[in-house]
Amino acid sequence: MIATDRNFFAYLDEMKIITILLPLSYHHGLSSTFLISSDFQEHPLKIIEKRQIDNNMKYICEFSKDYSFEKQYVIIDEHGGKTDLHIGAVIRTDAFDEKFYYDGNDLGVTFHAGQTCFKLWAPTATQVKLKLRPANSSFSEIVKMKREDRGIWSVTVNRELEYYQYSFLILVNQEWREATDPYAKAVSVNGEFGVIVRLEKTHRPRPNLPAIENAVDAIIYETHIRDLTIHPKSGVKNKGLYLGAGELNTKGIDDEPTGLSYIKDLGITHIEFLPFHDFAGVDELQPNNEYNWGYNPLHFNAPEGSYSTNPADPYSRIMELKQLIDQVHSLGLRVIMDVVYNHVYIRENSSFEKVVPGYYFRHNEIGLPSNGTGVGNDIASERKMVRKYIVDSIRYWLEDYHIDGFRFDLMGILDVETMNEVRKVCDSLSKGTIIIGEGWSLNTPLPVEQKATIANQAKMPQIAQFNDKYRDCIKGSSFNLFDKGFVLGNEHYVEAANEVITGSIGFTKQGLALFNEPFQSVNYVECHDNHTMWDKLIACLPDAEDSLRMKYHRLATSIVLLSQGIPFLHSGQEFFRTKKGDGNSYRSPDPINQLDWDRKIIYKENVKYIKGLIQIRKSLSFFRMRTSAEIRANIRQLPLAAPMLGYLFNRENDVILLINPSLKKQAISIPEGDWAVLADHEQAEISSKKILHGGEVLIEPVSINVLLKK
To answer: By C-alpha distance, which of 86, 100, 81, 68 is closest to 23?
Structure first.
């Protein structure tokens, strides 16, 4: 902080509007004139409004000249009192965005013929310096940076600086701040500094995987890098690490696959990993002492170090993450990255706030940071350089890490235009990239029509949304632990279940449609958030036998896999994953969050059943219809008594799907002919030899039937 004796305060709130606050204790808050001074020149300000606010007199003044952000200004009142002019709300104006938008692709660190070049976007800074420090040294070198057009500060150092740590010193509003590079691709332990690396050393060939023609062909399996392998019986050597998540041919005590090989064997197509960009909450030097899901973002373009074998080596985390991704690709599977562009861990400590204070975050009508995310800050994605940052980051992960899809945490905080720009860059680089997001409508100061929410899905036709209506009507509300959903026989949810099972497109009532097309709906009953399905069943059915809970659980997962849309499974869901009743395990210890590979052995018959259903979905396009028109033309609802639901699919061969969530056997009539029973209460197998003959058949309690016309 540069010492300044301020009797009052002044802020640049628009390009030519200055707000001045005089305390009533200072000359009763009165001044009939104000001057603005810079470079020994003084100009009068025009007072256009004056009113008392609490213990201050507020003056709105107009500046007739063009404000120069390169200079420092002083405001002088009629009494000769002075104060420095602070950058205020001007940074949140369209005029500021237009003046300083920079479309270059060289922010951060670049290299040219033995030179290392640094660029930082900091338009409100009056000075910027580069701080360099050799690896394993306490000596720092300070290099002045030069201001260029569009608020860019740059410097070129005429030597190679590989492994050097670096940060920026920024002077804004007479206060020096030290910040890491928002565009840093590598960081030191716990993200204290950016680190200069030569990424070409980590490059590898792009995988040659066949394109996913439609998102409904995907089956997503969500897991956490640590959870996947940390269990003592995972059979994995590098437990809890990138390398462990990528180990192949690992086996449990039953000599059956675990880890990545198990996921491949299950039959899913996409693995969604919880956040692996650099995050707070785990000391990278002592990763076993803490746990975190990863929704505390620090550096969006650098991998997290707690999953690395050597977090002190900036290359280690990069290479090991890329090795994990390559291993996934080697099995013909794809990686979805969970990204958290909606907020940062602590706003005041973030590089965004230190580099351009107030720009990257939304503020409410009284100038305070908004909190729609619930963590103290909302990213202002609608601002041009914030949008550019998000799109640049997505491009980087696509190009350099070969990511196959993105899951946007709290996507409803972001704006429609940004999400469509993300879609555009994905399509330009990698056809078939899946984009899914949480389109919840949250209390953030962005016009409703601009929010990337389910309500605005029609404005983002190629982006899929987590279908919370699906989740809550199939299993019961996630926010009322004791609410029983459709699978528990609750007839209140039958109409809603009918709609979501058929793609949430308004199959029977157009007014109930959430989406225009089935590929926009991510269907799920369980994810890392809230209680697992098993734990909810224990709460809803405290006196039931586990055998009954297992039937309800299997039914819920079966419906997910046989509904129109994109099926989404939580890792371990197929063996009744429990978190011991913990409904918010974001920092709970391993015994709560780990995948319990013992349960895979105990419940191997259910794993086999779910594996069979996955094969049925992949083999029969009936369950993967690509358009709403196709669904309406090829699915006929059967007239069954509630709570049963049934559907006849007409194409080359007829298929019948029957769902009985009741505790009673149900007798129904099916068309004449021979029907192969692909799935029932006992087995799920695409090559099933079990046959039913047309006419009246009995459907077992709490079960599904998939019948294929012979």
So the answer is: 81
Q: How are the residues of the chain apportioned to helix, strand and coil, as percentages rounded to the nearest 5?
A: 30, 25, 45
pLDDT band at 1 (very low <50, low <70, confident <90, very high): very low
3-state secondary structure 476-506: CCCCCCCCCCHHHCCHHHHHHHHHHHCCCCC
Task: List the 74-77 sheet strands across, edge first.
Answer: 41-44, 34-38, 74-77, 82-87, 9-14, 17-23, 56-62, 46-53
Positive or negative CA dihedral for 384, 388, 389, 394?
Answer: positive
Bridge partner residues of 664 (DSSP): none
642 and 691, same domain (yes or no): yes
Annotated catalytic residues are: 409, 438
Residue for token pair 């129904």: 668
Query: Which H or E run includes 549?
Result: helix 546-562
Tell me whether residue 517 is in a domain: no
Same domain for 43 and 65: yes
In this prediction, what percent of the chain has a pLDDT beyond 70?
99
CB atoms within 10 A of CB 254: 14
672 φ, ψ (degrees, to nearest 5): -65, 155
- Report the C-alpha gap between 497 and 544 in whole angstroms: 24
Strands 41-44 and 34-38 turn out to be: antiparallel
Residues 255-267, mean pLDDT to the nearest whole number: 98
Structure-derived torsion over alpha carbons of residues 313, 591, 587, 302, reported in degrees to the nearest 10: 20
Same domain, 72 and 116: no
Residue 72 placed within a domain: yes
User: What integer pLDDT is reported at residue 502 of this predicted model?
Assistant: 98
Which DSSP state fits 207?
A: P
Checking if the pLDDT of 353 tops 50, the result is: yes
Q: Which of 473, 488, 469, 603 is nearest to 539 (CA)?
A: 488
Spatial separation of the C-alpha atoms in residues 196 and 166, rounded to whole Å? 8
pLDDT at 496: 96
Question: Domain range spanning residue 347?
Answer: 341-467
Number of C-beta neighbours around residue 622 at 10 A:
24
Find, among 10, 91, 150, the residue nearest to 362 by Cα.
Answer: 91
Over residues 197-207, mean pLDDT? 96
Q: What 3-state class would DSSP assign to 655? A: strand
Chain centroid offset of residue 444 CA: 17
Residue 330 to residue 318: CA distance in whole angstroms: 18
CA angle 281, 283, 284 (to 5 degrees): 120
Cα 425–Cα 516–Cα 472 angle in degrees, nearest 5: 100
Tell whether 253 is covered by a domain.
Answer: no
Nearest to 420 by CA among 381, 447, 466: 381
Question: Are 118 and 72 contained in the same domain?
Answer: no
Evaluate whether residue 79 is within a structural domain.
yes
CA dist 451 and 459 (Å) reads 10
CATH, residue 655: 2.60.40.1180
Query: Would you say residue 121 has pLDDT above 60?
Result: yes
DSSP alpha helix (H) spans, 589-627:
590-593, 597-602, 604-619
